[in-house]
Amino acid sequence: MTHGLDTAEDCMRCLAVLGEPQRLRILRALADGEQTAGELSERLGVRQNTLSHHMRQLREHGLVEVRRHPHDERFTFYRLNGRRLRALSDVLTEWAARAETAWEPSGRRSS
Asked: Core-most of 21, 66, 78, 83, by most CB within 10 Å?
């Protein structure tokens, strides 16, 4: 089952991207809803060029989506890609379930 992730390597790359604390802060902020780059920068106390670097990584791995303001292309809006995050969550949930069933309550691996 792929969960919307192409390969196990794809899943691991997403997890590696999320291993950076600043990116997790960005995702947590976006959980409150769509925000502009300026709003995120101010909210997180991060310079625009630093934010841009992290957003590029999050976009390339499909964790956030982007859109331009329909009347003013200078404004970029970011939001979480819920489908991608759910797919990643599904993979982790599956791994956890497999791990739980692989071990007996005594702590020994089942056969």
From this structure: 78
Q: Which domain holds residue 38?
A: 8-100
| CB distance 18 to 63 below 8 Å | yes
- Sheet with 64-68, strands from edge to edge, namely 35-36, 76-80, 64-68
Q: What is the CATH number of the domain that holds 22?
A: 1.10.10.10
**Which two three-digit tokens encode residue 25?**
């802060």
d(Cα 96, Cα 100) in Å, to the nearest integer?
6
**Rounded to two decimals, what is the model's pTM?**
0.79
Q: Give the other-Cβ count within 10 Å of 93's Cβ.
A: 12
Q: What is the pLDDT along the chain (111 residues), one digit of tens a residue?
A: 344 676 778 888 999 999 999 999 999 999 999 999 999 999 999 999 999 999 999 999 999 999 987 777 778 899 999 999 998 988 889 888 988 887 766 656 655
